[in-house]
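Structure in, sequence out. Go:
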């Protein structure tokens, strides 16, 4: 940046900031930590090459991603942001299981509070029970056991371990 202060990159690398410095728009001098961490993880040369290969309108997003990944790599050098993603996916799976259990408990309580179906049904009751909306509700109660076991045993909830 050919102004008063060089960009964070040129400051850290102790070089003169050129007018067309590729880092200047994305690493301002008032945030030197941002470039320092990206440089530590990826290296200035690699970051420069990556930015030059991208169209100008995508560079800001790329820098944002590089900063995020660099921060994640500093926190978890082995897995980086993949470790954070895996942790969050595991947490979502556990919460989905808890939700399925809670929904099961609610449905069981609702079924206990419903009056038992009469053994002899007169014609008015039969037409009420066979109405399309009521058939859906009855089939929902009858099929609950199979649908709840599908939720709990859903293969998409199982995650591959990072350590295998």
């Amino acid at each position: 940046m050919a102004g008063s202060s060089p960009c964070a990159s040129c400051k850290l690398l102790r070089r003169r900031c050129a007018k067309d410095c590729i880092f200047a728009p994305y690493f301002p001098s008032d945030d030197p930590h941002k470039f320092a961490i990206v440089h530590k993880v990826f290296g200035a040369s690699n970051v420069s090459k990556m930015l030059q290969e991208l169209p100008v309108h995508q560079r800001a997003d790329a820098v944002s991603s590089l900063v995020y990944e660099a921060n994640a790599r500093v926190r978890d050098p082995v897995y980086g942001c993949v470790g954070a993603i895996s942790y969050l996916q595991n947490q979502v799976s556990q919460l989905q299981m808890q939700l399925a259990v809670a929904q099961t408990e609610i449905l069981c309580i609702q079924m206990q509070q419903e009056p038992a179906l009469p053994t002899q049904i007169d014609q008015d009751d039969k037409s009420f029970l066979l109405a399309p909306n009521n058939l859906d509700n009855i089939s929902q109660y009858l099929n609950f056991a199979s649908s709840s076991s599908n939720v709990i045993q859903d293969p998409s909830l199982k995650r591959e371990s990072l350590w295998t």
